[in-house]
Amino acid sequence: MSAPAAAKGTLYLVPTPLDHGCNTQSPLEDVLPLGTIKAAAALTHWISENAKSTRAFLKRVDALVPLAQPIQAQQITELPREVHKKGDHGGAARFDARPLLAPALQGQNVGLISEAGMPAVADPGSSVVRAAHDLGITVVPLVGPVSILLALAASGLNGQNFAFVGYLPQDAAARTQRIRELEALAHKTGQTQLFIETPYRNPAVWQALLQTLRPATRLAVAQGLTLTDGRVQARAVSAWRQARTDDNALGRAPAVFAIGP
């Protein structure tokens, strides 16, 4: 008679603070509930966007709740770099993450973690979640900050109908065309359009938005969410132009942009 199969572990989606890459950090207990911190401390197996940032996060967790194993003993597997560059959520680029979940099939709980915010939302990880569902592994999202939703809530734009569209094209002409498409959709449907950008391209994106958008379109930008120096500003494009906001005012801090009627 064969031995019964081991119960499968759970895949936990572990959110992290939004201060990755920022000059200052928020106290961990100010941005994550104690339940999330305790759940992270109990895990010993991780699927990570970046192992170094995961270890830094676990060090912050350990200062509040002792880890189940020392950081050096944590099993951290990084998602392939190609997943970061091309995405892992569809088409020919779809990544098979099932091998990464072998510990969960053997009964170990596994944490999925990105560098900032909720994994699989504006970050890699959807392939891991999809694989977990296909393998019959329970998926549990833990509570924590999601920059897209925080920015939307604070923008004053339509929170009943919205879309996150990722990154704008790098090419200037293609970027301008995309901005016009998103603006037309926003005015036609009332749907808020949210997007992000690599921080070093903030000035170029900001200039393109102010030059391309209609004067009456509302433009919001959120930076430093959950940090003491965080800010969310939203006004009509005409008002932004009158304010003569410096293209470099956004600096190199991560930003979430939103446009709507």
From TrEMBL:
Keyword Cytoplasm: yes
One of the protein's GO biological processes: rRNA processing
Record-linked InterPro entries: 4pyrrol_Mease, 4pyrrol_Methylase_sf, 4pyrrole_Mease_sub1, 4pyrrole_Mease_sub2, rRNA_ssu_MeTfrase_I
Domain called Tetrapyrrole methylase: residue spans: 73-232
Molecular function as annotated in GO: methyltransferase activity
Keywords annotated in UniProt: Cytoplasm, Methyltransferase, rRNA processing, S-adenosyl-L-methionine, Transferase
Pfam family, one: TP_methylase
Superkingdom to which the source organism belongs: Bacteria
PANTHER family for the chain: RIBOSOMAL RNA SMALL SUBUNIT METHYLTRANSFERASE I, SAM-DEPENDENT METHYLTRANSFERASE
Record-given protein name: SAM-dependent methyltransferase
Species of provenance: Ottowia beijingensis
